[in-house]
Amino acid sequence: xxxxxxxxxxxxxxxxxxxxxxxxxxxxxxxxxxxxxxxxxxxxxxxxxxxxxxxxxxxxxxxxxxxxxxxxxxxxxxxxxxxxxxxxxxxxxxxxxxxxxxxxxxxxxxxxxxxxxxxxxxxxxxxxxxxxxxxxxxxxxxxxxxxxxxxxxxxxxxxxxxxxxx
Length: 166
Fold this sequence. Notes:
The chain is α+β, with helices and mostly antiparallel strands. 14% of the residues lie in helices and 28% in strands. It starts with a helix and ends in a 5-residue tail after the last strand.
């Protein structure tokens, strides 16, 4: 009887687990090097992203691109975006009326530019149960606070970047 209940519990847990958002890019693989095109050494446009396994209840997506390796307290945030369409595709150079402040206090995408070594860039996507009312003066922390209680799922793509030795 004990074996039967344990097996039933396992089947129930596996059967009800949700699929995590999958974040990919046609420009780099998870754990791979990000092309310089998307950095301060290139045209500094955002890379294309594809998000799949989006919950059917999602009303919008949000994205935070963050470098925890940056030599400043809390790391460096490169991009903050919300109210992204749930179709889940951001083309290269994506722009949106719902972009907030990066750590350089600029609205929009800021390309990778590590002062030394190889840094990890986390492209973290959130599926939300609502559209968010925020203005462009919001940053990573205020977006994270506003999303609390509205995150249906999340996923992440991590890319690496090191400046060339010029």
